[in-house]
Write a structure and sequence with these properties.
It is built from 17 helices and 16 strands. The radius of gyration is 23 Å and the shape is globular. The chain is α/β, with parallel strands linked by helices. The protein folds into 3 domains: about 200 residues, 3-Layer(aba) Sandwich (Rossmann fold), CATH 3.40.50.2000; about 50 residues, no CATH class; about 170 residues, Glycogen Phosphorylase B (Rossmann fold).
Length: about 450
């Protein structure tokens, strides 16, 4: 079988959930004797230099990779180009004609947009999608509004208000005169008392919503890890019959986690850790606030991962100032993850957005570590409260501090949680299930899953 994998980025430059999923799948397909072409975005830049699409080709770990670069100025408008880029569409059409794949597989729509799906359809090639986030519903991927509230799906006026919420003048106005900003969404919806740029933005969000929903509903199969992610998309007009949910399965107990607790750092302290990229929607500020409520003599907190943006890094460092038990370890190499987790007792996943299936939780379970996580979406789907971890109220540092505090004061709790941690089935077994979807699509069978049409998870 010949497969094109389209993905936002690809190792070694970028290593995140979608990229690792694509890399592992490509390696598995090659090992099974299939042919693979990866197409990803290498760079997107401001300005009009090199206004066309740049293409670099390489072999990475035996995988043929095309890395594309594009100037925003070269797109048909920076907004539409973010989801419907004609340069990407043209290149992918050429790539399909040259490589002649049996199937095109898009993993997350971020950066690549709908171009892989349109190009495949125009060439008469089946296309499947793995949803790893909420990009097809939300330009920010997160379904998290600018004021911090969870969102359950696109509504053009609310999307415009969310866009405004992320701009400093509007933020200042909202903090000083909330009565003025409160009715903004209804005003935008009716087109009264608002600048033309706002109504134009609402029209853009409306076009985006219709276009991307139509593309998903034309794909031959949609795959995701959690039923939660599938149900959110179904609630927003995506055909439930196209979904195949490929959840993580238990692969048995972690042998190293069966024996007595190792004793933390040697001084009886419980070692908490955060793993992964440190963005505002990941809730690390909530974690720092919560940890400061714990006695420094009883616990440590290590934050592994690069912090972005710089303003958020300054904020976190300021919040942690004066607490010697909080350590920012910075960027880490994924190959050393097992070594890092040997020095950790509990992993914390404090996200304030819905999440899908956080890789940090998967890695924690693979190494026998319980997880304390927010009671949202994909986190709650993986963490069984009171068995392999603990859940707390999203965005509430007091709730998180209470759960972390239990691990310091209830002596039997941490060993009990640790004994219930089970490894998850990832890698070859998971890839084989994805390949089974390929075979069903090529045979004309399509999806074999049914998730129902209930409106909210």
């Amino acid at each position: 079988m010949r497969v094109i994998l389209a993905v936002p980025h690809f190792p070694p430059r970028h290593v995140a959930g979608a990229e690792l999923r694509a890399y592992r799948l490509a390696r598995w397909l090659l090992a099974q004797g299939h042919e693979v072409q990866v197409i990803c975005i290498g760079d997107v830049w401001e300005g009009d230099e090199a206004a066309g699409l740049t293409v670099s080709e390489e072999i990475y770990d035996g995988i043929a990779v095309q890395r594309l670069g594009c100037s925003i100025a070269a797109w048909q408008g920076p907004l539409q180009g973010a989801y419907d880029n004609p340069l990407l569409l043209q290149h992918l059409g050429q790539a399909i004609a040259s490589f002649r794949p049996d199937l095109v597989h898009l993993i997350s729509g971020y950066l690549m947009g709908s171009a892989p799906l349109r190009a495949a359809r125009e060439a008469g090639v089946p296309a499947v999608v793995t949803l790893t986030d909420f990009w097809f519903l939300c330009p920010t991927l997160s379904l998290l509004r600018g004021d911090g509230r969870l969102c359950w799906g696109p509504e053009p006026a609310e999307c415009t208000r969310c866009w405004l919420n992320r701009r400093r003048p509007f933020q200042w106005l909202e903090s000083h005169a909330p009565a003025v900003t409160r009715p903004v969404a209804p005003w935008i919806r009716r087109g009264i008392f608002v600048p033309a740029a706002w109504t134009a933005r609402m029209a853009y969000y409306s076009r985006r919503q219709r276009s991307l929903a139509a593309e998903l509903n034309k794909a031959h199969a949609l795959m995701c890890i959690t039923r939660f992610l599938a149900k959110v998309h179904v609630a927003n007009g995506i055909d439930p019959d196209r979904f195949t949910v490929i959840p993580y399965r238990s692969a048995g107990r972690v042998e190293s986690a069966v024996g007595p607790l190792a004793g933390g750092d040697g001084n009886g302290k419980v070692r908490f850790a955060y793993l992964g990229k440190v963005f505002p929607h990941k809730g690390v500020d909530v974690l720092v606030q919560a940890f400061r409520q714990l006695p420094e003599s009883r616990a440590t907190l290590t934050i592994f991962g690069a912090i972005e943006p710089a303003s958020f890094e300054k904020r976190l460092l300021r919040m942690a100032r004066g607490n010697s038990a909080i350590h920012f370890a910075g960027r880490y190499d994924n190959d050393r993850l097992g070594e890092l987790l040997e020095r950790v007792d509990v992993v914390v996943a404090p996200s304030v957005w819905h999440e899908n299936a956080p890789r940090a939780i998967v890695e924690a379970f693979q190494h026998g570590k319980p997880v304390v996580g927010s009671n949202v979406g994909g986190i709650a789907a993986l963490v069984d409260d009171g068995r392999n971890g603990l859940l707390f109220e999203r965005g509430n540092p007091d709730s998180l501090a209470a759960q972390m505090g239990r691990l310091l004061t209830e002596g039997a709790l941490l060993p009990a949680l640790r004994s219930n941690v089970r490894r998850l089935e990832v890698g070859d077994a998971e890839n084989a299930r994805v390949f089974a979807v390929y075979l069903r699509v090529l045979s004309g069978e399509g999806s074999q899953d049914s998730i129902g049409k209930d409106s909210r998870p």
